[in-house]
Design the sequence.
């Protein structure tokens, strides 16, 4: 090549090098600007959580799309990582201790189920056609609230049987609790404010500064009754999307029996558990008719047994057991139930379930529900302490009767009771106080709570004759953000005029919980003597927030079960 050509080539090369050297800082500046923008967005969305520092730390270390669904999905993924961390922590505990082993059985079950709820939420938000409709968001709120409760249940089980191990795991998993809370906060913000994350802010009320959530005392915080803005659903809404067509057709027909359980051998099975075990996974609804008789067995409907119906002969069909915490080594409240339902879409009709351990057995559950969309109709629940464990997810009780003494309707489900008789009994332990409810909401972002509409809060004749020694209260705060609301319910004279009582004489949860009544009536409904930290609802619109239509979305699924439903106050 000639000298001229070489000079031209050198000149061109110089220009290229110069262009690259100029382009690099420009690209870095653009990238830095984008990073600053994402960091600003992350800082903003973290203000929608109860734990903004944890939120900022989580988002700073992640790889996600900086939009509403991207940050929400990533927060759910981070929460799932946290649950896995808790699982790893419990694996290090001493499994040769029978008490620890009992609690770890609970942990293994509930933590896996917690992960499944988070994965389901991640899947919904990651779908190509995913839209934040009200139904979708209500489902996500319920699932992630349940995921939080399931994680808490593991810790509660450990604290119950091995306090030292329980406290250690509680400390180790505190970060996971915050991750779960923040993930739910993002879902609430997405539901409330939409895709514009710059508009997101904390819904409900925040944890007051300077107050330890494990011992909430002191500052009174005005509760926000029902921060969800949920429209009324009509009875013409479509059946739940998760049901297959065959199940929908089956439910809309008059009840027929697929399987008969009879102790005398005249049916298909002699025990209820055998009939449950015969139900194939992912099959259509199976209706099990349980003939009259006393079935002494612990019945477990596993999570794989979806769409089961139990129909009995009223109180002539009795499912009985006596598992309890006080008299049985290594027993947990969670595992003590006579009837355990973990399969979604369960319907129970016309039977009685009881735990006969008595007051001496302390926690002795008759029924525990840990599944989506449980409905119970004309079912009787009978025990002493902890009769009905409405553990998690959405549940509906209609025309049921519940007997018990201490905290005998408890748990952290979204549970609506309509036209039920809630009957306190006299304990065989002298002077033991009765509490109808002990609701367990642990976080202000949760959508959980108990709602009682047109129910009767009654007592047995033996109790009413001894109200001096056996006082009865509507409820107390089991956890820091308990929610329990009575709507047009009858409160009889044996109920203490103060209505509600503290948890173990402390101020725990009194000013962060929400205990309320709307138009209570009866001899025990004089509100002038109610405790100062309870509420009298005067607005019909506020009361409607806790009506079954709004509170558990009842009109979108209960009618498909062929069960009665009141849709107005």
Sequence:
């Amino acid at each position: 090549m000639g000298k001229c050509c070489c000079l031209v080539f050198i000149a061109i090369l110089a220009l290229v090098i110069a262009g690259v050297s100029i382009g690099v800082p420009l690209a870095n500046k653009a990238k830095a600007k984008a990073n600053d923008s994402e960091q600003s967005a992350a800082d903003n969305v973290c203000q929608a959580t109860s734990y903004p520092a944890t939120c900022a730390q989580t988002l700073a270390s992640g790889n996600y799309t900086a939009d509403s669904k991207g940050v929400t999905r990533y927060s759910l993924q981070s929460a799932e990582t946290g649950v896995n961390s808790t699982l790893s922590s419990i694996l290090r505990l001493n499994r040769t201790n029978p008490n620890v082993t009992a609690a770890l059985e609970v942990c293994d079950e509930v933590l896996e189920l917690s992960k499944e709820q988070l994965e389901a939420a991640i899947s919904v938000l990651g779908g190509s056609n995913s839209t934040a409709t009200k139904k979708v968001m209500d489902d996500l709120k319920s699932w992630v609230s349940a995921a939080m409760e399931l994680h808490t249940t593991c810790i509660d089980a450990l604290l119950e049987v091995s306090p030292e191990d329980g406290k250690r795991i509680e400390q180790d998993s505190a970060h996971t609790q915050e991750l779960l809370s923040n993930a739910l906060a993002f879902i609430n913000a997405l539901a409330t404010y939409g895709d514009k994350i710059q508009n997101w802010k904390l819904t409900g009320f925040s944890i007051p500064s300077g107050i330890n959530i494990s011992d909430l005392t002191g500052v009174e915080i005005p509760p926000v009754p029902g921060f969800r803005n949920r429209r009324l659903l009509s009875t013409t809404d479509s059946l739940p999307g998760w049901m297959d067509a065959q199940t929908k057709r089956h439910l809309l027909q008059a009840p027929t029996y697929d399987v008969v359980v009879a102790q005398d051998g005249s049916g298909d099975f002699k025990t209820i558990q055998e009939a449950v075990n015969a139900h194939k996974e992912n099959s259509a609804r199976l209706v099990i008719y349980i003939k009259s008789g006393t079935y002494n067995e612990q019945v477990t409907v596993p999570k794989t047994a979806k769409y089961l119906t139990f129909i009995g002969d009223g109180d002539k069909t009795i499912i009985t057991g006596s598992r309890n915490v006080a008299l049985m080594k290594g027993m947990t409240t969670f595992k003590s139930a006579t009837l355990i339902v973990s399969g979604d879409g369960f319907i129970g009709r016309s039977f009685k379930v009881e735990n006969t351990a008595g007051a001496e057995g302390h926690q002795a559950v008759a029924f525990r529900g840990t599944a989506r969309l449980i409905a119970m109709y004309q079912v009787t629940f009978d025990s002493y302490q902890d009769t009905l464990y409405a553990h998690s997810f959405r549940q509906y009780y209609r025309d049921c009767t519940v007997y018990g003494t201490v905290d005998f309707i408890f748990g952290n489900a979204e549970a609506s009771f309509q036209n039920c008789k809630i009957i306190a009994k006299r304990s065989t332990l002298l002077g033991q106080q009765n509490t109808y409810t002990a609701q367990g909401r642990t976080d202000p972002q949760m959508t959980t709570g108990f709602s009682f509409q047109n129910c009767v809060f009654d007592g047995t004749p033996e109790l009413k004759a001894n109200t001096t020694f056996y006082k009865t209260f509507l409820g107390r705060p089991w956890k820091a953000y308990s929610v329990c609301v009575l709507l047009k319910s009858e409160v009889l004279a044996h109920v203490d005029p103060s209505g509600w009582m503290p948890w173990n004489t402390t101020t725990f949860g009194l000013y962060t919980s929400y205990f309320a009544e709307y138009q209570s009536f009866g001899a025990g409904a004089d509100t002038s003597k109610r405790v100062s930290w309870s509420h009298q609802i005067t607005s019909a619109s506020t009361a409607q927030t806790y009506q079954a239509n709004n509170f558990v979305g009842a009109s979108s699924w209960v009618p498909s079960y062929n069960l009665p439903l009141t849709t107005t106050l």
Remarks:
- Confidence is low (pLDDT under 50) at residues 1-34, 205-243.
- DSSP finds twelve helices and 26 strands in the chain.
